[in-house]
UniProtKB/TrEMBL annotation:
Organism superkingdom: Bacteria
Membrane-related topology note: Multi-pass membrane protein
Location(s), subcellular: Cell membrane
Protein name: Permease
Family (UniProt): Belongs to the UPF0718 family.
Pfam families: ArsP_1
Cellular-component GO terms for this entry: plasma membrane
Keywords: Cell membrane, Membrane, Transmembrane, Transmembrane helix
Length: 349
């Protein structure tokens, strides 16, 4: 009974820490979706140069596209002439961030960790794009089928024909942010909160010294779970926070936040099919090696500055009535969408 109460308490604390930021993020995401023309992204990524890579990385930061929705975009971008390096950059940069995830990261981990996550995602995606331009000079385009979608809901594949710029609609912005986008992330968010709460509740406190003394083991364990598993940038946050609270080094939690959203078993297969084996090698090696390197740097930063890693996790602010109101709204939307989707276990588990 005590474990159940502790589990429910942890689940509520996780939800309360991100709900307000997610609601604001979904709202901004809906506005962005309405403001950007349907073919805007494709038009920016055609040139085979550093400029197109930078565009791909920068465009990927705010866009509300998870590791599910980016899958059909890989094929659509290639069919419209985007170069492989830019597509790979976009494939890595976009799922790691997103306006909803950025705000939720700030809600749990604060400004410093959020800025580090943003900067490193851009660097990783640019490195992958540059390496791909150097290693893979082939121009063959391969099609992608709609069956590559990994979500329970339908993936939004951008139209392949040119369209006139649509008129801005506030109603459509809300419909996309709190309808389409929320529905795409409802299940992974739910499972992320549950898994994170279980980790905090069940992992014994005396395991912390072992985890800190065997950081390599923590990194390998996290990578083994993160790479094949479908977890979006937002739903990975409660799990990463729970890992830190359980004693896992911040660097290992950072690896999970990077490798988890950037990869999953289906995306790996699609990258291989659409971009080729060389691009797949660049994709995986950059994400794995880069996330580990930046994770080690993060642990080093905390160590030399004598920062208690657990203090960066903020999940206990229950005295703020505004946040509690947003939490209530978020829970209503969450369970409404879960009911409509008839909740299923997370993909890749």
């Amino acid at each position: 009974m005590n474990y159940l109460i502790e589990f429910l308490t942890n689940a509520f604390l996780f939800t309360n820490s991100i709900a307000m930021y997610l609601i604001i993020g979904f709202f901004i995401a809906g506005i962005l979706h309405e403001l950007l023309p349907d073919d805007f992204i494709r038009k920016q990524l055609g040139e085979r140069n550093l400029r197109s890579l930078i565009k791909a990385a920068v465009l990927g930061i705010p866009l509300p596209i998870c590791s599910c929705s980016v899958i059909p975009l890989i094929g659509a971008l290639r069919r419209k002439g985007a170069n492989k390096g830019a597509v790979l950059t976009f494939t890595i940069s976009t799922p790691i961030t997103g306006i909803d995830s950025i705000l939720a990261t700030y809600g749990i981990f604060g400004f410093l960790f959020t800025a580090y996550r943003l900067v490193t995602s851009v660097i990783l995606s640019l490195i992958a794009g540059l390496l791909n331009l150097i290693i893979d000079r082939s121009s063959e385009e391969k099609p992608i089928t709609e069956s590559s979608c990994c979500c329970s809901c339908s993936c939004s594949i951008p139209p392949t024909q040119g369209q006139e710029k649509k008129q801005f609609s506030f109603r459509e912005a809300l419909k996309y942010g709190f309808g389409t986008l929320f529905k795409e992330t409802a299940q992974p968010l739910f499972w992320g909160i549950l898994i994170g709460s279980l980790i905090v509740t069940l992992i014994p406190q005396n395991i912390e010294p072992f985890l800190r003394e065997n950081a390599v083991f923590s990194y390998v364990l996290v990578l083994a779970a993160a790479i094949p598993m479908y977890v979006c940038a937002t739903s990975s946050l409660p799990i990463a926070a729970s890992l830190i609270l359980a004693g896992v080094p911040a660097g290992a939690a950072f690896v999970f936040l990077t490798a988890g959203p950037a990869t999953n078993a289906i995306t790996i297969g699609v990258v291989d099919k659409v971009l080729g084996r060389k691009s797949l090698f660049v994709y995986l090696s950059t994400v794995i090696a880069g996330s580990i390197l930046f994770g080690i740097l993060l642990d080093w930063f905390f160590e030399i500055n004598r920062i208690n890693v657990k203090e960066i996790v903020h999940i206990d602010d229950t005295g703020n009535p505004v946040k509690l109101l947003f939490t209530a709204i978020f829970l209503i939307l969450l369970f409404k969408n879960l009911w409509e989707l008839r909740i299923k276990p997370p993909a890749g588990t």
